[in-house]
Amino acid sequence: MARQPEDSPEERVRRSVARTIANLTLLVASIAVLGAWAYFGFYQLEPGQAAVILRFGKYVRTEGDPGLRWHWPPPLESHEIVNVESLDKEEFGARHGEEQSEEEVRHEASMQTSDNNIVHVAFVAQYRIKDAFKSRYRVAEPRAILRDAAQAAVRGVVGRHTIDGVLRQERGMVQTESEEALQESLDRYEAGLEVVGIELQDVSPPSEVRAAFDDVLAAMQDRDRSVNEAEGYANEVLPKARAQAIEAVESAKGYRDSKIAEASGEATRFRAIATEYQKAPDVVRTRLFLETMEEVLPNVRAVVVEPGTAVMPYLPLEATRAPEVPK
Amino acid sequence: MSRMIFLGLVGSALLAALVWAGEIGLGPVLITHEDEMKIVLLFGSPVSVQTSPGLSLRLPFVSEVRTFDKRFLYTNAEPLPMQTRDAEQPVIDHYVVWRIQDPLQFYRSFPTGLKQASDQVDRVTRSDVREEVGKRTFAEVVTTAREEVMKAITDSSAAELAGFGIEVRDVRINRTELPRNTEENVYARMRTERERLARKNRAEGDEQGRRVRAEADRDARVTVAEATRQASELRGEGDAESARIYAEAHSTAPEFYGFLRRLEAYKKTIGEKTTLVVSPDNEFYELLGRGGRGAGVH
Questions:
Q1: Is the Cα dihedral A120, B171, B70, A195 positive or negative?
Q2: pLDDT at A181
Q3: What is the average pLDDT value for chain B, to the nearest integer?
Q4: What string of DSSP letters covers B26-50?
Q5: Do A139 and B217 make contact, defined as CB atoms within 8 angstroms?
Q6: A186: closest CA among B168, B72, B167?
Q7: Which of A68, A157, A159, A188 is 20 to 30 A removed from B115 (C-alpha atoms)?
Q8: Is B56's pLDDT higher than 80?
Q9: Given CB atoms, is B179 within the 8 Å cutoff of chain A?
Q10: Residue A152 near residue B93 (C-beta atoms within 8 A)
């Protein structure tokens, strides 16, 4: 067009204006089209969601921040929103809804222990998606796999413990080991799931043998009671014995101290009198003798025998009681 | 300039259209997603295999595309009774996790698709489970050698199915249930075991109770006896000490002590019922005469 001859200046100006307008229109239009196309690249992420972004079907990244996000519009890139964070749970061996019959639940709960007993274990597995991409693109039915893998894991672990362990003190170990076993399986299947916890809910012996198990519990209580009673007895007997012992010792101390005190008193008295005696032995002697006699003799019957008289050395012991004085 | 923009727009729109067509399986662009593998067939024979995701090209219109799942697949087997080495017949349930390893081989083996393959996986693993279980005792399968058994089954199934383009990741035994009558035997054994435990607990309770009582009695006796010993010692100490004190005091005037002691003895021995036989030259006679209150007079 530019090569057309006989262009008048006005004509040239007019054409150039027209061209500019056309260009502008085209530009605006193309921007509008591009804008409209780009609009399809917007998507929204709620908290707890992640978006897996694929470019031409190939994984490029995972977006985890909530808000309005953008990727290259289709068909260049596409996104898949996966709910992460939220906890999901699967229950086993307990009736949930009407999906399972009683018989099925029983089968699900029944497990063998290492000592070849049967125990019924109901448990809950909690899990969440830890890798949005894997859970969507690496495993076909993550939930179904999880259900079977969880059961296999718990059965495997219960099979390594005795029934008493599973019923009582090893419950925590069973839980932890099951969690580990399940996590290991899930990682091997690249399920992108994280086991948050396996919780044993109802662990009980089968109903067929429950009475026998209850009796063992009762026997344990009997044992404890017997020991408690005996300890009660001991708690009564020992303090009594101790009290008795203290009494005996204290009374003996009393005896000793009183004996010593008495002796000291007597000794002091004796010394005092002895001192007096040594000053005037005869006087003291006589006085003491007389005093004693005064005290003693008034109540006495006396029989006097002359010295030198030939009295038969006959002592009528019975007669001595009589008032007469034999001569 | 406008022309360039225009051409650019039209060009990219065209490319976009091609890719879009590829998304729905038309045109020369082939898109393989992360969870897929594709085989391109030209007149029925495979010409290319796409195992990794992304874009590739193919001849439009004349070529056909077969898509295969690249993800791990899961097959849960029906529980079936199997015989163990020790002649138990537990009902055993297992599951298999597997995936398509080689789409071409897989396609050749299972031209009708996944269902056929899944049946084959089920058949092979089931026979492997049966075979392995047959070599083991029930206790081994269920408890002692569980992992080993599963590993052996996984290995042999993997080896057998590798020829079909299938990778077996895991075969795991799930439920192992004994038939009803065998279960009854187990229950009977469990009951006996519990009865034994109950008896043991009660006997132990008795034993411990009696031991505690006996120990308490012993301790009580020892405590009292020890106290008695101590008491005797203390009394002895008292007696010895008092004797020593007396002896010490009396030894200062032994003769006088003898005198005093005699007097004391008189006081104690002579009373109302006493009859005194005295000679007049005796001290007593003198006293009697002087005292004058005595019953007997000469």
A1: positive
A2: 94
A3: 86
A4: -SSEEEE-TTEEEEEEETTEEEEEE
A5: no
A6: B72
A7: A188
A8: yes
A9: no
A10: no
Query: Residue for token digits 């002896």?
Result: B247
CA angle B116, B79, A163 (to 5 degrees): 145
Contacts of A224 in chain B (CB under 8 A): 205
Alpha-carbon torsion, ordered A129, A130, A135, A141, to 10 deg: -50
Mean pLDDT of the A32-44 span: 88
Among B20, B242, B276, select the one facing A300 at the smallest CB separation.
Answer: B276
CB B166 within 8 A of CB B68: no
| Residue contacts between A and B (CB atoms, under 8 Å) | 369
Q: Is the pLDDT of residue B175 over 50?
A: yes
Which CATH number among 3.40.190.290, 3.30.565.10, 3.40.50.12780, 3.30.479.30 corresponds to the domain B73-178?
Answer: 3.30.479.30
Whether residue A140 is found in the same domain as residue A227? no
Please give the residue of chain B at the shortest CA–CA distance from A261. Answer: B242
In a domain, A201, yes or no: yes
CB atoms near residue A295 (< 10 Å):
13
Residues A109 and A192 in one domain: yes
A7 inside domain: no
CA distances from A204 to A119, A151, A164 (A): 6, 17, 10
Boundaries of every domain in chain B: 2-67, 73-178, 253-291
Asked whether the beta carbons of residue A75 and residue B23 sit closer than 8 angstroms, the reply is yes
- More confident call, B204 vs B296: B204
Max mean pLDDT range (A121-130, B2-11, B136-145): A121-130
A216's CB contacts (< 8 A; 6+ apart) are: B194, B197, B198, B201
Give yes or no for residue B183 having a pLDDT over 90.
no
By DSSP bridging, strand A301-304 and strand B275-278 are parallel
CB spacing of A116 vs B143 below 8 angstroms: yes
- The reply to whether A189 and A152 lie within a common domain is yes
Same domain, A130 and A146: yes
**Is residue A153 in some structural domain?**
yes
Write the pLDDT tens digit of every residue in A94-125. Answer: 866 666 677 778 888 889 998 889 999 999 99
Cis peptide, bond prior to residue A75, ω within 30 of zero: yes
Res A235 pLDDT > 60: yes
Residue with tokens 């789409």: B103
Residue A310 domain-assigned (yes or no): no
> CB B31 to CB A57 under 8 A?
yes
Q: In the structure encoding, which two tokens stand for residue B104, read together?
A: 């071409």
| Residues constituting chain A | 327
Distance CA B104, CA A67 (A): 43
Same-domain check for residues A74 and A144: no
Facing residue for B293 by CB, picked from A133, A259, A298: A298
pLDDT tens sequence across A294-317 = 887 777 776 666 666 554 455 445
> For residue A255, what pLDDT band results from cuts at 50, 70 and 90?
very high
**What is d(CA A64, CA A81) in angstroms, rounded to the nearest whole number?**
10
Binary contact (B279, A306; C-beta < 8 A) = yes
Q: Among A83, A106, A128, where does a domain finish? A: A83
